[in-house]
Each structure stands twice: as structure tokens, then as C-alpha cells.
Write a structure and sequence with these properties.
The structure is a single chain. The chain is mainly alpha-helical and about 200 residues long. It folds into 2 domains: about 100 residues, Orthogonal Bundle (Rna Polymerase Sigma Factor, Chain: A); about 70 residues, Orthogonal Bundle (Arc Repressor Mutant, subunit A), CATH 1.10.10. It is about 70% helix and about 0% strand. Helix 2 crosses helix 4. The protein is globular.
Length: about 200
């Protein structure tokens, strides 16, 4: 990896990452992890929960980029912060209480209100596809299947998954990414409808 890679713009790094230069994502992560994590922790006030939300945020970022759904609008960090914000709202909604969200440029009340409708729709889709996903998970290679089971059924965070499986967090994230790719392929091969 050339020294000049760290000077690339967010969009250039994303493009290179999508073209197979995995280390480019590490540069993005290093560039923004303090800002994203600091925001999450300032609202959540619980380090272990903040760690989970931070990891979930970047899992969604990786998944969206790899799926080809990321729109290149020169607003990468705003998009990442919105994902983190939405996960925070989800967390408090599950607890049955809503905190006062700081009035910041990267937090939007409209996003919070829209999120409720999105969550209801996501929950319906999740219930409809849960059985199909379980069948497909059984077809994954063992190391990918283990990460999926620990993450989605065991509710482990990626740090714990990495420790349990004896790999780095990036490797655990990578295995999850490949598991999702394989689940999509298996779903297509078996003509099964899933939402990942």
C-alpha cells in the first residue's frame, strides 16, 4: 500500500476498497473512528453498548458498500453518522425510552421520525425471512456459519467473536461479509427470498 493512499479522498478509498484493496477501508475507519465512537459514547454513556453500536455501524457501512448500495455523494462521514444515530435510536426504542438527542448538524429529527416507519417495515420483513435465512446459514462454510450464529443468534459483538474464534476483528468482519455474499448466492441458487 503506497504511502500516498492515506491522502486519498473518502470516495477514492471507497472505490479502491470495492475494487479489492481491503486496506483502503482500514484508512477510512482510522480516519473517522474517533468522531463516530465519540458521538455514540456521548449519547449512550455506556462503553460496552457504545462498542456494540460502533461495530454495528461499521458492519452496516461495509455491508452497504459491498452490496453496491452506497451512493457516492461526497458525504461519507455524514452517512456514517446517520447510521450510528439510527442505531442509537433503535437501541433506546428497544429499551422503551427515548433520550434527548444532541442538536448537532449530523443529527436530524426528521431522520428519527422516519426511522419508526422504517423499523416497522424491517421487522415485518425480518419475521417473514427468518426461516429461510436459517436454512441457508446451515449451508455456509463452518467459519462463516460460526460468525453468523455468534453475531445474529448469540448477539455477540465482533470483538467477542474475534476472541472466541481466535482471529482479528477485521477477519471476523470479513467472514461476516463473505457469509452475506454467500447467503445471497445461495438464496439465488435455491430461489429463496431473503432480505440482508
Amino acid at each position: 500500500m503506497a504511502v500516498t493512499t492515506s491522502a486519498l479522498s473518502d470516495n477514492e478509498l471507497i472505490l479502491r476498497y470495492r475494487n479489492g484493496e481491503v486496506a483502503c477501508f482500514d484508512i477510512l475507519l482510522e480516519r473517522y473512528q474517533s468522531k463516530v465512537y465519540g458521538y455514540i459514547l456521548s449519547v449512550i454513556k455506556d462503553k460496552s453498548v457504545a462498542d456494540d453500536i460502533f461495530q454495528d455501524t461499521f458492519y452496516k457501512v461495509v455491508y452497504t458498500i459491498n452490496s453496491g448500495y452506497y451512493k457516492d455523494e461526497n458525504k461519507f462521514i455524514h452517512w456514517v453518522m446517520r447510521i450510528a444515530h439510527n442505531l442509537i435510536v433503535d437501541y433506546f426504542r428497544r429499551l422503551g425510552k427515548m433520550p434527548m438527542i444532541p442538536n448537532r448538524p449530523d443529527c436530524d429529527v426528521v431522520d428519527t421520525l422516519k426511522l419508526h416507519e422504517d423499523n416497522v417495515e424491517r421487522e415485518i420483513i425480518r419475521k417473514q425471512t427468518n426461516s429461510n435465512v436459517r436454512k441457508l446459514v446451515k449451508m455456509l462454510p463452518p467459519e462463516q456459519r460460526r460468525v453468523v450464529i455468534l453475531r445474529h443468534y448469540g448477539k455477540y459483538d465482533f470483538k467477542d467473536i474475534a476472541e472466541q474464534t481466535g482471529v482479528s476483528i477485521n477477519t471476523a468482519l470479513g467472514r461476516m461479509r463473505y457469509a452475506i455474499i454467500n447467503l445471497r448466492r445461495l438464496a439465488k441458487e435455491h430461489n429463496v427470498s431473503i432480505e440482508l
